[in-house]
Design a protein that fits this description.
The chain crosses the membrane at residues 21-44, 344-369. By secondary structure, this protein is an alpha+beta fold. It is built from six helices and 16 strands. It has helices at 2-10, 26-51, 163-173, 184-189, 191-197, 344-385; strands at 54-61, 68-77, 85-91, 96-97, 104-109, 115-120, 202-212, 216-222, 225-228, 231-234, 248-255, 269-271, 279-292, 298-311, 323-330, 333-340. It starts with a helix and ends with a helix.
Protein backbone atom coordinates (compact mmCIF):
# COMPACT_ATOMS: atom_id res chain seq x y z
CA UNK A 1 0.00 0.00 0.00
CA UNK A 2 2.84 2.35 0.85
CA UNK A 3 4.29 1.70 -2.57
CA UNK A 4 0.98 2.75 -4.19
CA UNK A 5 0.85 5.97 -2.17
CA UNK A 6 4.47 6.67 -3.10
CA UNK A 7 3.66 6.37 -6.80
CA UNK A 8 0.64 8.66 -6.42
CA UNK A 9 2.85 11.24 -4.64
CA UNK A 10 5.26 11.11 -7.58
CA UNK A 11 2.37 12.15 -9.88
CA UNK A 12 1.74 15.36 -7.89
CA UNK A 13 1.83 18.24 -10.40
CA UNK A 14 1.67 20.78 -7.57
CA UNK A 15 4.84 20.33 -5.48
CA UNK A 16 4.67 22.19 -2.17
CA UNK A 17 7.31 24.69 -1.11
CA UNK A 18 8.30 25.19 2.49
CA UNK A 19 6.87 28.40 3.90
CA UNK A 20 10.38 29.41 4.97
CA UNK A 21 11.14 30.05 1.31
CA UNK A 22 8.09 32.31 0.70
CA UNK A 23 8.74 36.01 0.17
CA UNK A 24 5.56 38.04 0.32
CA UNK A 25 5.68 41.54 -1.23
CA UNK A 26 3.44 44.61 -1.31
CA UNK A 27 3.20 44.51 -5.11
CA UNK A 28 2.22 40.84 -4.94
CA UNK A 29 -0.60 41.63 -2.53
CA UNK A 30 -1.94 44.42 -4.77
CA UNK A 31 -1.78 42.21 -7.86
CA UNK A 32 -3.56 39.39 -5.98
CA UNK A 33 -6.35 41.76 -4.90
CA UNK A 34 -6.81 43.17 -8.43
CA UNK A 35 -6.73 39.68 -9.97
CA UNK A 36 -9.37 38.46 -7.51
CA UNK A 37 -11.67 41.37 -8.40
CA UNK A 38 -11.20 40.70 -12.13
CA UNK A 39 -11.95 37.00 -11.67
CA UNK A 40 -15.08 37.82 -9.67
CA UNK A 41 -16.38 40.27 -12.29
CA UNK A 42 -15.72 37.83 -15.13
CA UNK A 43 -17.34 34.99 -13.18
CA UNK A 44 -20.50 37.02 -12.52
CA UNK A 45 -20.68 37.97 -16.21
CA UNK A 46 -20.26 34.36 -17.27
CA UNK A 47 -22.90 33.26 -14.76
CA UNK A 48 -25.33 35.80 -16.23
CA UNK A 49 -24.73 34.42 -19.72
CA UNK A 50 -25.35 30.90 -18.41
CA UNK A 51 -28.58 31.78 -16.60
CA UNK A 52 -30.05 33.82 -19.47
CA UNK A 53 -30.78 32.41 -22.89
CA UNK A 54 -29.47 33.66 -26.20
CA UNK A 55 -31.15 33.72 -29.60
CA UNK A 56 -29.84 32.35 -32.87
CA UNK A 57 -31.29 33.72 -36.13
CA UNK A 58 -31.64 31.73 -39.33
CA UNK A 59 -32.93 32.87 -42.72
CA UNK A 60 -34.55 30.36 -45.08
CA UNK A 61 -36.80 30.52 -48.13
CA UNK A 62 -40.48 30.33 -47.17
CA UNK A 63 -41.84 27.29 -49.02
CA UNK A 64 -45.23 27.21 -47.26
CA UNK A 65 -48.32 27.50 -49.44
CA UNK A 66 -51.78 28.74 -48.70
CA UNK A 67 -52.84 29.38 -45.14
CA UNK A 68 -54.37 32.37 -43.44
CA UNK A 69 -52.93 35.60 -42.07
CA UNK A 70 -54.28 36.85 -38.74
CA UNK A 71 -54.22 40.63 -38.30
CA UNK A 72 -54.75 42.17 -34.87
CA UNK A 73 -55.32 45.93 -34.64
CA UNK A 74 -56.29 48.68 -32.23
CA UNK A 75 -56.64 52.14 -33.82
CA UNK A 76 -58.12 55.36 -32.49
CA UNK A 77 -59.73 58.02 -34.71
CA UNK A 78 -60.33 61.12 -32.53
CA UNK A 79 -62.55 62.89 -35.11
CA UNK A 80 -64.50 60.12 -36.92
CA UNK A 81 -67.73 58.85 -35.27
CA UNK A 82 -68.16 55.10 -34.95
CA UNK A 83 -71.33 55.08 -37.07
CA UNK A 84 -69.40 56.50 -40.04
CA UNK A 85 -66.31 54.30 -39.68
CA UNK A 86 -66.13 51.06 -41.64
CA UNK A 87 -63.48 48.41 -42.21
CA UNK A 88 -62.94 46.78 -45.61
CA UNK A 89 -60.43 44.24 -46.90
CA UNK A 90 -59.42 42.89 -50.30
CA UNK A 91 -56.53 40.88 -51.75
CA UNK A 92 -54.97 40.09 -55.12
CA UNK A 93 -56.88 36.81 -55.34
CA UNK A 94 -60.04 38.87 -55.84
CA UNK A 95 -61.59 38.20 -52.44
CA UNK A 96 -63.30 41.29 -51.01
CA UNK A 97 -65.03 42.05 -47.71
CA UNK A 98 -66.87 45.32 -47.12
CA UNK A 99 -67.99 46.84 -43.83
CA UNK A 100 -66.56 43.94 -41.80
CA UNK A 101 -68.27 43.41 -38.45
CA UNK A 102 -67.20 39.97 -37.23
CA UNK A 103 -64.77 40.19 -34.28
CA UNK A 104 -64.76 44.01 -34.52
CA UNK A 105 -65.39 46.20 -31.49
CA UNK A 106 -65.92 49.95 -31.42
CA UNK A 107 -65.60 52.41 -28.55
CA UNK A 108 -67.28 55.78 -28.79
CA UNK A 109 -64.94 58.40 -27.33
CA UNK A 110 -65.42 62.11 -26.62
CA UNK A 111 -63.07 64.97 -27.51
CA UNK A 112 -60.95 64.21 -24.43
CA UNK A 113 -60.53 60.53 -25.26
CA UNK A 114 -62.90 59.27 -22.55
CA UNK A 115 -64.94 56.19 -23.47
CA UNK A 116 -68.65 56.86 -23.90
CA UNK A 117 -69.84 53.43 -25.04
CA UNK A 118 -68.37 50.07 -26.08
CA UNK A 119 -70.25 48.07 -28.66
CA UNK A 120 -69.88 45.30 -31.19
CA UNK A 121 -71.71 45.91 -34.45
CA UNK A 122 -74.37 43.27 -34.83
CA UNK A 123 -74.92 41.00 -37.80
CA UNK A 124 -78.42 41.09 -39.25
CA UNK A 125 -81.39 43.33 -38.64
CA UNK A 126 -82.93 44.33 -35.32
CA UNK A 127 -86.46 43.28 -34.51
CA UNK A 128 -89.05 45.78 -35.76
CA UNK A 129 -92.60 45.83 -34.50
CA UNK A 130 -95.09 45.86 -37.40
CA UNK A 131 -92.69 47.11 -40.10
CA UNK A 132 -93.78 48.35 -43.51
CA UNK A 133 -94.19 45.60 -46.13
CA UNK A 134 -93.31 45.78 -49.81
CA UNK A 135 -97.00 46.01 -50.69
CA UNK A 136 -97.28 49.16 -48.58
CA UNK A 137 -99.20 47.80 -45.58
CA UNK A 138 -97.89 46.89 -42.14
CA UNK A 139 -96.84 43.40 -41.10
CA UNK A 140 -99.90 41.41 -40.12
CA UNK A 141 -100.23 38.34 -37.90
CA UNK A 142 -98.41 35.22 -39.19
CA UNK A 143 -97.25 37.15 -42.27
CA UNK A 144 -93.62 36.78 -43.36
CA UNK A 145 -91.81 40.10 -43.37
CA UNK A 146 -90.41 41.33 -46.68
CA UNK A 147 -89.41 44.97 -46.56
CA UNK A 148 -89.26 47.28 -49.54
CA UNK A 149 -85.94 48.25 -51.17
CA UNK A 150 -87.57 51.49 -52.36
CA UNK A 151 -86.90 51.01 -56.04
CA UNK A 152 -83.44 49.45 -55.73
CA UNK A 153 -84.62 45.83 -56.08
CA UNK A 154 -82.80 43.75 -58.70
CA UNK A 155 -85.41 40.96 -58.59
CA UNK A 156 -89.14 40.75 -57.92
CA UNK A 157 -88.68 38.60 -54.82
CA UNK A 158 -85.85 40.68 -53.28
CA UNK A 159 -86.46 41.96 -49.74
CA UNK A 160 -84.70 44.63 -47.67
CA UNK A 161 -85.46 43.92 -44.02
CA UNK A 162 -83.13 46.45 -42.41
CA UNK A 163 -81.68 49.89 -43.05
CA UNK A 164 -78.33 48.31 -43.87
CA UNK A 165 -79.93 46.07 -46.51
CA UNK A 166 -81.61 49.08 -48.12
CA UNK A 167 -78.30 50.92 -48.17
CA UNK A 168 -76.62 47.86 -49.68
CA UNK A 169 -79.26 47.70 -52.43
CA UNK A 170 -78.68 51.40 -53.15
CA UNK A 171 -74.93 50.83 -53.26
CA UNK A 172 -75.30 48.04 -55.81
CA UNK A 173 -77.31 50.39 -57.96
CA UNK A 174 -74.73 53.16 -57.52
CA UNK A 175 -77.27 55.44 -55.88
CA UNK A 176 -76.75 57.72 -52.92
CA UNK A 177 -79.27 57.47 -50.08
CA UNK A 178 -79.85 61.19 -49.60
CA UNK A 179 -82.65 61.13 -47.02
CA UNK A 180 -82.79 58.12 -44.65
CA UNK A 181 -85.83 59.65 -42.92
CA UNK A 182 -87.91 58.54 -45.91
CA UNK A 183 -86.76 54.92 -45.50
CA UNK A 184 -89.04 53.06 -43.12
CA UNK A 185 -86.34 50.66 -41.91
CA UNK A 186 -83.84 53.46 -41.24
CA UNK A 187 -86.43 55.61 -39.52
CA UNK A 188 -87.53 52.81 -37.18
CA UNK A 189 -83.92 51.84 -36.37
CA UNK A 190 -83.07 55.44 -35.50
CA UNK A 191 -80.29 55.62 -38.11
CA UNK A 192 -80.46 59.39 -38.53
CA UNK A 193 -80.64 60.09 -34.83
CA UNK A 194 -77.68 57.77 -34.16
CA UNK A 195 -75.46 59.76 -36.52
CA UNK A 196 -76.63 63.06 -35.03
CA UNK A 197 -75.98 61.80 -31.49
CA UNK A 198 -72.39 60.91 -32.37
CA UNK A 199 -71.57 64.24 -33.99
CA UNK A 200 -68.23 65.57 -32.71
CA UNK A 201 -67.18 62.21 -31.27
CA UNK A 202 -64.28 59.92 -32.11
CA UNK A 203 -63.95 56.17 -32.32
CA UNK A 204 -61.57 53.48 -31.16
CA UNK A 205 -61.85 50.36 -33.29
CA UNK A 206 -60.11 47.12 -32.37
CA UNK A 207 -60.38 43.48 -33.23
CA UNK A 208 -58.91 40.96 -35.65
CA UNK A 209 -59.09 39.92 -39.30
CA UNK A 210 -58.41 36.60 -40.97
CA UNK A 211 -57.32 37.05 -44.57
CA UNK A 212 -55.69 34.92 -47.25
CA UNK A 213 -51.92 34.67 -47.04
CA UNK A 214 -51.40 36.74 -50.19
CA UNK A 215 -50.78 40.42 -50.87
CA UNK A 216 -53.73 42.68 -50.18
CA UNK A 217 -54.94 45.61 -48.15
CA UNK A 218 -57.39 46.56 -45.45
CA UNK A 219 -58.55 50.08 -44.77
CA UNK A 220 -60.66 52.16 -42.44
CA UNK A 221 -63.02 54.39 -44.40
CA UNK A 222 -64.87 57.48 -43.26
CA UNK A 223 -68.25 56.38 -44.62
CA UNK A 224 -69.78 53.07 -45.68
CA UNK A 225 -67.95 51.53 -48.61
CA UNK A 226 -69.34 49.76 -51.65
CA UNK A 227 -68.02 48.37 -54.92
CA UNK A 228 -69.01 49.49 -58.39
CA UNK A 229 -67.26 48.48 -61.61
CA UNK A 230 -63.51 48.51 -60.94
CA UNK A 231 -63.49 51.36 -58.42
CA UNK A 232 -63.71 51.46 -54.69
CA UNK A 233 -66.20 54.23 -53.80
CA UNK A 234 -67.77 55.54 -50.64
CA UNK A 235 -71.30 56.64 -49.93
CA UNK A 236 -71.56 60.24 -48.80
CA UNK A 237 -75.07 60.79 -47.54
CA UNK A 238 -76.43 64.25 -46.83
CA UNK A 239 -75.94 63.84 -43.09
CA UNK A 240 -72.17 63.53 -43.48
CA UNK A 241 -69.64 66.30 -43.85
CA UNK A 242 -67.78 66.97 -47.10
CA UNK A 243 -64.49 66.60 -45.29
CA UNK A 244 -63.14 64.10 -42.80
CA UNK A 245 -60.33 64.39 -40.32
CA UNK A 246 -58.59 61.03 -40.46
CA UNK A 247 -56.02 61.82 -37.79
CA UNK A 248 -55.33 58.57 -36.00
CA UNK A 249 -53.19 56.70 -33.53
CA UNK A 250 -52.13 53.09 -34.07
CA UNK A 251 -52.20 51.60 -30.58
CA UNK A 252 -51.42 48.12 -31.90
CA UNK A 253 -50.93 46.40 -35.22
CA UNK A 254 -49.65 42.83 -35.42
CA UNK A 255 -49.67 40.13 -38.07
CA UNK A 256 -50.04 37.05 -35.91
CA UNK A 257 -49.21 36.40 -32.27
CA UNK A 258 -46.71 38.46 -30.30
CA UNK A 259 -43.08 37.35 -30.36
CA UNK A 260 -41.02 37.86 -27.16
CA UNK A 261 -38.57 40.72 -27.52
CA UNK A 262 -40.02 41.98 -30.83
CA UNK A 263 -41.66 45.44 -30.90
CA UNK A 264 -43.89 46.16 -33.89
CA UNK A 265 -42.86 49.39 -35.66
CA UNK A 266 -46.35 50.93 -35.76
CA UNK A 267 -47.30 50.42 -32.11
CA UNK A 268 -47.92 53.87 -30.61
CA UNK A 269 -47.51 55.75 -33.92
CA UNK A 270 -49.69 58.85 -34.25
CA UNK A 271 -50.48 60.98 -37.31
CA UNK A 272 -52.32 64.30 -37.44
CA UNK A 273 -54.03 65.42 -40.62
CA UNK A 274 -53.19 68.87 -41.93
CA UNK A 275 -54.48 68.77 -45.53
CA UNK A 276 -58.18 68.62 -46.44
CA UNK A 277 -59.28 65.02 -47.06
CA UNK A 278 -57.06 62.39 -48.62
CA UNK A 279 -55.84 58.90 -47.89
CA UNK A 280 -53.05 57.94 -45.53
CA UNK A 281 -51.20 54.86 -46.73
CA UNK A 282 -49.00 52.35 -44.93
CA UNK A 283 -46.97 50.03 -47.17
CA UNK A 284 -46.07 46.97 -45.14
CA UNK A 285 -43.64 44.15 -45.90
CA UNK A 286 -44.62 41.12 -43.83
CA UNK A 287 -41.81 38.70 -42.94
CA UNK A 288 -42.93 35.21 -41.80
CA UNK A 289 -41.24 34.42 -38.49
CA UNK A 290 -40.98 31.31 -36.33
CA UNK A 291 -39.96 31.64 -32.69
CA UNK A 292 -38.74 28.53 -30.89
CA UNK A 293 -38.51 29.00 -27.12
CA UNK A 294 -35.99 27.34 -24.86
CA UNK A 295 -38.78 25.28 -23.25
CA UNK A 296 -40.07 23.93 -26.55
CA UNK A 297 -42.74 26.57 -27.17
CA UNK A 298 -43.10 27.46 -30.87
CA UNK A 299 -44.81 30.61 -32.18
CA UNK A 300 -45.63 30.84 -35.89
CA UNK A 301 -46.06 34.55 -36.49
CA UNK A 302 -44.78 37.50 -38.54
CA UNK A 303 -42.66 40.62 -38.28
CA UNK A 304 -43.02 43.58 -40.60
CA UNK A 305 -41.38 46.75 -41.86
CA UNK A 306 -43.35 49.79 -43.00
CA UNK A 307 -43.20 53.00 -45.00
CA UNK A 308 -45.84 55.75 -44.94
CA UNK A 309 -47.32 58.16 -47.46
CA UNK A 310 -50.18 60.68 -47.49
CA UNK A 311 -52.05 61.17 -50.75
CA UNK A 312 -54.30 64.21 -50.97
CA UNK A 313 -57.64 63.78 -52.72
CA UNK A 314 -58.27 65.47 -56.07
CA UNK A 315 -61.52 66.94 -57.27
CA UNK A 316 -63.90 64.63 -59.06
CA UNK A 317 -64.63 60.93 -58.61
CA UNK A 318 -61.92 60.18 -56.07
CA UNK A 319 -62.75 63.03 -53.72
CA UNK A 320 -64.43 60.52 -51.40
CA UNK A 321 -61.56 58.04 -50.94
CA UNK A 322 -60.79 59.45 -47.51
CA UNK A 323 -59.44 56.79 -45.18
CA UNK A 324 -56.43 55.00 -43.72
CA UNK A 325 -55.05 52.21 -45.89
CA UNK A 326 -52.73 49.34 -44.96
CA UNK A 327 -51.19 47.67 -48.02
CA UNK A 328 -49.33 44.49 -47.12
CA UNK A 329 -47.13 42.12 -49.08
CA UNK A 330 -45.39 38.90 -47.99
CA UNK A 331 -41.64 38.40 -48.04
CA UNK A 332 -40.32 35.15 -49.61
CA UNK A 333 -37.79 34.85 -46.78
CA UNK A 334 -38.70 33.27 -43.45
CA UNK A 335 -36.87 34.13 -40.23
CA UNK A 336 -36.39 31.53 -37.50
CA UNK A 337 -35.49 32.63 -33.97
CA UNK A 338 -34.20 29.78 -31.80
CA UNK A 339 -33.77 30.47 -28.10
CA UNK A 340 -31.03 28.41 -26.46
CA UNK A 341 -29.11 28.11 -23.17
CA UNK A 342 -25.37 27.78 -22.71
CA UNK A 343 -24.59 24.23 -21.59
CA UNK A 344 -23.26 23.61 -18.07
CA UNK A 345 -20.00 22.13 -19.39
CA UNK A 346 -19.45 25.20 -21.56
CA UNK A 347 -20.04 27.38 -18.51
CA UNK A 348 -17.64 25.27 -16.42
CA UNK A 349 -14.97 25.43 -19.13
CA UNK A 350 -15.22 29.21 -19.33
CA UNK A 351 -15.00 29.59 -15.54
CA UNK A 352 -11.84 27.43 -15.44
CA UNK A 353 -10.40 29.47 -18.31
CA UNK A 354 -11.12 32.70 -16.44
CA UNK A 355 -9.52 31.53 -13.19
CA UNK A 356 -6.51 29.91 -14.86
CA UNK A 357 -5.95 32.75 -17.32
CA UNK A 358 -6.16 35.56 -14.78
CA UNK A 359 -4.06 33.62 -12.27
CA UNK A 360 -1.35 32.96 -14.88
CA UNK A 361 -1.24 36.54 -16.17
CA UNK A 362 -1.13 37.88 -12.60
CA UNK A 363 1.72 35.49 -11.77
CA UNK A 364 3.75 36.62 -14.78
CA UNK A 365 3.15 40.27 -13.94
CA UNK A 366 4.08 39.73 -10.30
CA UNK A 367 7.29 37.93 -11.31
CA UNK A 368 8.29 40.75 -13.65
CA UNK A 369 7.68 43.39 -10.98
CA UNK A 370 9.52 41.34 -8.33
CA UNK A 371 12.60 40.79 -10.49
CA UNK A 372 12.62 44.43 -11.57
CA UNK A 373 12.52 45.61 -7.95
CA UNK A 374 15.25 43.09 -7.02
CA UNK A 375 17.51 44.31 -9.87
CA UNK A 376 17.01 47.95 -8.88
CA UNK A 377 17.76 47.15 -5.24
CA UNK A 378 20.94 45.32 -6.23
CA UNK A 379 22.16 48.26 -8.30
CA UNK A 380 21.54 50.60 -5.40
CA UNK A 381 23.55 48.37 -3.04
CA UNK A 382 26.42 48.12 -5.52
CA UNK A 383 26.43 51.89 -5.85
CA UNK A 384 26.76 52.34 -2.12
CA UNK A 385 29.70 49.97 -1.77
CA UNK A 386 31.31 50.82 -5.10
Amino acid sequence: MERVFSKLRSLDAYPKINEDFYNRTLSGGIITLVASIIMLVLFVNELGLYIHSYTETQLVVDTSRGGKLHIHFDITFPAVPCSLLSLDARDISGEEHFDIRHDIFKKRIDSHGAVIEVRQDGIGAPKIEKPLQRHGGRLEHNETYCGSCFGAETADDECCNSCEEVREAYRKRGWGMTNPDLIDQCKREGFVQKIKDEEGEGCNIHGSLEVNKVAGNFHFAAGKSFHQSTFQLFELISLQSDTYNISHRVNKLAFGDSIPGVVNPLDGVQWTQEAQNGMYQYFIKVVPTIYKGVRGRTIDSNQFSVTEHFKGSDLGLFQSITGVYFFYDLSPIKVTFTEEHVSFFHFLTNVCAIIGGVFTVAGILDACIYHSQKAIKKKVELGKFG
